[in-house]
Amino acid sequence: MLARHYIGESWKHGLLIIGALIVLIPFYMMVSMSLKSQQEIQSISGGLVGAQEIQTFPVCTKHGYTEEVCTMRPYKYNFWFAFKKAPIPRYLMNGLIVTVSIFLIQVLIALPCSYALAKLRFKGREFVFSMVLFCLLIPVHAIALPLYVMLAKAGLVDTYAALIIPWTISVFGIFLMRQFFMTVPDELIDAARMDGMGEYSIVWKVMLPVAIPALLAFAIFSVVAHWNDYFWPRIVITGNRDLFTPPLGIREFRGGIDSDEFGPMMASIVTVTIPLIVAFIVAQKRFVEGITMTGMK
Amino acid sequence: MGTISLKNINKSFGSTEVLKQLSLDIQDGEFLTLVGPSGCGKSTLLKIIAGLEQQNSGDVIIDDKNVNSTRASKRDLAMVFQSYALYPHLTVRKNLETPLKLRDYSFVERLPLVGNFVPSRKEKKKSIDDLVFKTSETLKITELLDRKPGQLSGGQRQRAALGRAMVREPVAFLMDEPLSNLDAALRVHMRSELSELHNSLKTTFIYVTHDQAEALTMSTRMAVMIDGELLQLDTPSEVYNNPSSLRVAEFVGSPKINTFAAQISSDGSVEFMGIKLERKFNTNSQKALVAVRPEHLEITKDSNKPAFEATVSYRENLGSDIFYHVQVDQSDSKIIVRGSPARLISNGETVRISPSHAEAMLFETSGERIR
Question: In this complex, do B87 and A209 lie within 8 Å of one another by their Cβ atoms?
Fold first, then answer.
């Protein structure tokens, strides 16, 4: 009886483990390749970390460094050369500026909107809300071209503004926060009004602190989406390398004379991914809460 | 001062009329209870007084000032809510300070950081601290001041919510079923505390409840509201003993009052269930309803007393009292009779029931009282 139970459970777990492996293997390869030398990568040998023999790297000397400088262990070389070849800290900084600005402005706009949609009575409220739902259905790619033309006409191509402005109104954020505010009792708002707060004070001093869990969930959605976004930055950042976001930066490692040197390329990808992984681990519980709370994605 | 008067208040949500031409005068320092079944509009009325809801027509007058267009916070009223509505992210102390800061501080003084440098703020802060401390002493919540609402029990939250209302020293307190989230024992205890608080503050209390026991025990006057209309406004004993209509008589009192069909002869004498009432009534109707409270019906063995026969179908033992649900033999109606615990009667037994003539009330079939 008990054994049967375990067998019944184990096939489920087996299936889940296989699923997890499929997701994890690319990650494993990324980390492994960022540590190994080019020969080990090409011959698919050396396990996770490779032999880590001290060697001189030809691509490095081709770039004009002395042989002495170019002699080191592969893991060190991959990360050192990645940072030498592209201004990765700059890219990370750009990513940070863009994602944080987007998130803050999204909150600034979404909170009052969702408060009004959830708690204020006005004519046409249901219509406005149905428009919000409708906007959820529009894919970015469909409106990319008109957006680009608008930004180009305004002379904003190749600026931070081009990266940020199109995302500042998040209908998903408005929808998510509206659903959350619906669960906040009206009495709390009435109490704040009796105490003398205006509607904006209520939004920032009462609703915002109450909504922290929902906001954190939204923060993760928003930051992950825009940190990883390749499509939009690729369109509006045409030349200025100083404005490259991390995904655009990784592209730097493709092409050119040393296009097939995977070690430094993978090292740069690891560097770009680490902030998100750390953020995810820190906020893991909230993230899962957020997804289950909205029942979306 | 805290006189509040409402003149011809009308309110409807969409096509549903919630309040119909309601007028009400509340005197300074009284404990007025608005009581009625759920959905009768009593909470809406309270919100209209508070300024949280706008009436469609009619006037709200506080201390001889028309406040129709005055914002909720400027009406100098404080409200206690059923769910307490404490700010969950602030400590009890901050919860109590909030209304005072919003009232006393200027815009600049309220600013974070910058506010600290305004010299007048220090004095105001001192007086706020004093008020918060004094209030917490009165309510015995001093040791809870640094906790958040989530760490408090229901009764403690209730006190904190009362405290937040009290610190402002308002002209009147508005309470929207403040005790209904508490357990039974605590509710009875808080009733007496609220009454004591009212006695010591001597401020006007307007208290909304659907629980007629709360209304009967605490209020100076109670206003019975049913379907958006004010049916009777009087002292609890007057409402209980002398209801103006059958609806009031049926709502107030537990168990519910018993009604019997009655015939009226041309000389004004009333007969029901084969019993002739001693009193005569002045009315033209021929049919009416006699209403008698359970405690005014007596189970008797005395065959000389006018009485009717009934069969006990269910016995409700409350310890101090026993209520018998009895099936009247001549008709199919069920009534409730209070019996004494001295003699228990078992289900199925036939008893003789005799009404107290002085306490029987007569109503028109439409519900108006015949005196």
Answer: yes
Owner of token pair 């045409």: A238
pLDDT at A292: 56
- The CATH number assigned to the domain holding A120 equals 1.10.3720.10
pLDDT for residue A101: 96
Asked if A114 and A76 sit in the same domain, the reply is no
Is the same domain home to A95 and A81? no
Element (H, E) at B103: helix B92-104
Domain range for A10: 2-85
A7 shares its domain with A78? yes
- The position carrying tokens 């430094």 is A264
Give domain limits for chain B.
4-249, 256-370
The residue type of B207 is: Y
**Model confidence over B214-264: pLDDT tens digits?**
999 999 999 999 988 899 999 999 999 999 999 999 999 888 999 988 888
pLDDT for residue A294:
45
* Whole-number pLDDT of residue B309: 87
Residue A264 located in a structural domain:
no
Please state, in angstroms and rounded to a whole number, the distance separating the CA atoms of residues B308 and B260: 12
Distance of alpha carbon B271 from alpha carbon A192, whole angstroms: 59
Please report whether residue A295 resides in a domain: no
What is the model's pLDDT at position A277? 86
> Do A32 and A178 fall into the same domain?
no
Listed as own residue / partner, the contacts of B50-56 with beta carbons closer than 8 Å and 24 or more positions apart are: B50/A190, B50/A194, B50/B75, B50/B77, B50/B79, B50/B174, B51/B75, B51/B77, B52/A190, B52/A193, B52/A194, B53/B11, B55/B9, B55/B10, B55/B11, B55/B19, B56/B10, B56/B11, B56/B12
For residue B263, the cross-strand partners are B271, B287
Residues A207 and A95 in one domain: yes
Q: Which residues of chain B have pLDDT under 50?
A: none
Query: What is the rounded CA–CA span in Å between residue A56 and residue A70?
Result: 5
What's the token pair of residue B353?
A: 């029931």
Domain count, chain A: 2
Same domain as A76, residue A120: no
Show the tokens assigned to A46: 């050396």
Question: B281: which residues sit within 8 A by CB, 6+ positions away?
Answer: B264, B268, B270, B288, B362, B370, B371
Q: Mark yes or no for CB contact B83/A197 under 8 Å.
A: no
Residues of chain A positioned with their CB less than 8 A from the CB of B74: 196
CA A272 to chain centre: 10
Cβ–Cβ below 8 Å for A190 and B102: no
Contact criterion met (CB < 8 Å) for A193 and B72: yes
CB contact A187 to B (< 8 Å): yes
Between CA A104 and CA A109, with CA A105 as vertex, the angle to 5 degrees is 120
CATH number, domain B4-249: 3.40.50.300
Contact B161, B194 (CB under 8 A): no
Q: CATH 1.10.287.70: does it fit domain B256-370?
A: no
pLDDT of amino acid A295 = 40
SS3 category, B288:
strand
State how far residue B168 is from chain A, nearest Cα, in angstroms: 9
pLDDT < 70: residue spans in chain A: 1-3, 255-260, 286-297
